[in-house]
Amino acid sequence: MHQQRLSLQLPNFVLVLTLVLFVISCKDQNNKKTDESVRVDKTETTPKTVAPEGMLWVAQKTFLQGAKDSDQYAMPREKPAHWVTVDGFFIDVTEVTNKQFKAFVDATNYVTIAEREIDWEEMSKELPPNTPKPHDSILQPGSLIFNKNVNAVVNMENYGQWWTWKTGASWRHPEGPDSTIEGKEDYPVVHVAYQDALAYCKWANRRLPTEAEWESAAQGKNTNTIFTWGNDAAQLDSNANTWQGVFPTKNDSQDGFEFISPVKSYPPNSIGLYDMTGNVWEITSDFFNVNYYNELNTTKPILNPKGAEKYFNPNNPYQVEHIMKGGSFLCHASYCASFRISAKMGVSTDSGSDHMGFRTVATPDMLASKE
Questions:
Q1: For labeling, which of 2, 144, 225, 248 is most exposed (least CB within 10 Å)?
Q2: Is the pLDDT of residue 202 over 70?
Q3: Which of 118, 159, 160 is nearest to 142 (CA)?
Q4: Which residues have a Cβ under 8 Å from the Cβ of 115 and sit 6 or more positions away?
Q5: Residues 117-136 pLDDT 10s
Q6: Could you write out the DSSP letters of every residue in 322-355?
Q7: What is the spatial distance between Cα 208 and Cα 4, in angstroms, rounded to a whole number?
Q8: pLDDT tens digit sequence for 133-156
Q9: What is the spatial distance between Cα 232 and Cα 238, in angstroms, rounded to a whole number?
Q10: Model confidence over 169-200: pLDDT tens digits?
Q11: Do residues 236 and 110 touch, judged by C-beta distance below 8 A?
Q12: Quick check: 109 and 191 in contact, CB under 8 A?
């Protein structure tokens, strides 16, 4: 029986190394204007305006959200499947790239969480009571990176064996202080936390997708499929950047990439969206609550669901978590199998890593407000 084991959340001694939480909102939309004239009825199949640069329209539709009956890897938190109706919206064709994020930083001088000095007093509020303060030499800015030198694993429950806290790792230095994004402008930006993504959204007059919007986009023209391309698991390697071989010690790279890949390295889904499966996880706006689906009234389709009102993860009771979707280059059937549309995990608002990024959405009313 497959069991989901992977988690981005860190044990307490590493959680101490995550960076200080402070509130950033995507609701204030004082950002750069779009040139397009927006006159869109959001219930229409086709908008009355061209999509903003780098985005496309996802038409309103009713589809089955959550785990499908034939999905052998489905987790309890993905059940029960339920019908939802989501209005049309624009979404980024790709994950936000290093080039796009650099434009934001250059324009605003924004400093990501992974680059900020650590305030232990603030951080300790997000940790269990009486968590001891680590030595100052440990409390240094950085982020999580995948340990590419793992030769053997003693216990697959101990994910600390293949994750390393790297001082100096950030979106500018994805593998540590000696690395660079030079020549990788078209790679997804990584080492960005939920709060960093919100700051980008505010600047770009965008917001993060809800989980339902994300699944609507991932389904493309479909309404009830397990994968972004359909239901045939054998097409995984040709459609997504995931792990082949033995996780986490050997990646056969049968899909063409051992680790992260440039955007658009694989075919798009049926409406033209790239990398909705694999490459890097994508942050959404919904709280991560393992009980949420079980609390829904599924007697009729739910209109534009916004997710749970409260976060709940018994494995990380002290962390405010949001849902991330799509899996990453580390996903493998023997371990996490999160290359399915319904798959999801929780990530704290101040946590980043080298296999998590994001993409944004915009609605007609948002664009119209900036005319």
A1: 2
A2: yes
A3: 118
A4: 141, 170, 172
A5: 877 666 666 666 767 766 66
A6: EEEES--TT--TTTT---STT-EEEEETT--BTT
A7: 25
A8: 666 666 777 888 876 666 555 554
A9: 11
A10: 999 999 999 999 999 999 999 999 999 999 99
A11: no
A12: no
Token digits of residue 36: 């397009």
Tell me whether residue 8 is exposed, middle or buried, using C-beta atoms within 10 angstroms of its C-beta: 0 to 12, 13 to 18, 19 or more.
buried
| Residue 257, amino acid | F
Q: Is 366 in a helix, a strand, or coil?
A: helix
Q: Looking at residue 44, what is its pLDDT?
A: 56
CB distance 164 to 10 below 8 Å = no
Of the candidates 297, 336, 293, the one whose C-alpha atom is nearest the C-alpha of residue 312 is: 293
Whether the predicted pLDDT of 10 surpasses 80: no
Angle between helices 194-204 and 98-108 (to 10 degrees): 70
The confidence score (pLDDT) of residue 127 equals: 67
Q: How far apart, in whole angstroms, are the C-alpha atoms of residue 73 and residue 67? A: 9
SS3 content of the chain, % helix, strand, coil (to 5): 20, 20, 65
Fold of 1-371: paralog of FGE (formylglycine-generating enzyme) (3.90.1580)
Phi, psi angle pair for 200, to nearest 5°? -65, -45
CA distance 126 to 217: 33
Q: How far is CA 256 from the centre of its chain?
A: 22
For residues 16 and 67, which has the higher predicted lDDT (pLDDT)? 67
The CB-side HSE value for 155 (13 A sphere, CA atoms) comes to 3
* pLDDT of 329: 86
Task: Please report, as a single letter, which amino acid is at residue 299.
Answer: T
Look-up of token digits 């989980």: 211
Residue 311 CA: distances (Å) to CA of 84, 182, 348, 349: 21, 38, 10, 12
Buried residues in 338-364 as b, exposed as e (16+ CB within 10 A): bbbbbbbbbbbbbbbbbbbbbbbbbbb
DSSP, collapsed to helix, strand or coil, labels residue 29 as coil
Two structure tokens written together for 30: 């004082």
**Residue 21 · residue 126 · CB < 8 Å:** yes
Rounded to the nearest 5°, which phi and psi values hold at 78? -95, 0
Q: Contact at 8 Å (CB) between 191 and 170?
A: yes
Q: Any bridge partners for residue 283, and if so which?
A: 324
Of the candidates 345, 340, 335, which has an alpha carbon nearest to the alpha carbon of residue 247?
335
